[in-house]
Design goal:
The protein has about 110 residues and is mostly beta strands. The protein has a single domain, classed as Jelly Rolls. About 0% of the residues lie in helices and about 40% in strands. It contains no helices and 9 strands. Strands 1, 2, 4, 7 and 9 form a 5-stranded antiparallel β-sheet that branches. Strands 3-8-5-6 form a 4-stranded antiparallel β-sheet, with no helix packed on it. Strand 5 and strand 6 form a beta hairpin. The protein is elongated. The N and C termini lie close together (about 10 Å).
């Protein structure tokens, strides 16, 4: 059987009205396979922090902004694989203010 196929994961969304100062998980079950590419779109009115462990802040994302991380682009040496492990969850929290809406989207792709 062939392997190393890139597959899209189910789109994960988080309602901005549920943002708090504590970490909230976007993809409740984590990535179903090792993840090589993610795109996070902050379509809310607030600045947010992103975490990949639910403990520390890793990325700042301004309101109405997006971020894409492709782990295969600059891997070195060539033919090595860089990715998030299966089960990794993505967390989000608001920096300040009272959330009034919007959506945070998590688009991801993995290798099976």
């Amino acid at each position: 059987m062939a392997k190393d196929y890139a597959v899209p994961f189910e789109l994960a969304t988080f309602d901005g009205i549920n943002l708090t100062a504590g970490w909230k998980v976007i993809n409740a079950d984590g990535f179903p396979y090792p993840c090589v590419r993610i795109k996070i779109i902050n379509d809310s009115l607030y600045q947010i922090l992103i975490s990949f462990d639910g403990r520390y802040s890793h990325i700042f994302l301004d309101s109405n902004d997006e971020l894409e991380l492709n782990f295969q682009t600059n891997n070195s040496p060539n033919n090595c694989k860089s990715m998030f492990k299966t089960g990794t969850k993505v967390y989000v929290k608001i920096i300040a203010g009272i959330p009034k809406g919007g959506t945070i989207l998590l688009i991801s792709q993995g290798i099976i």
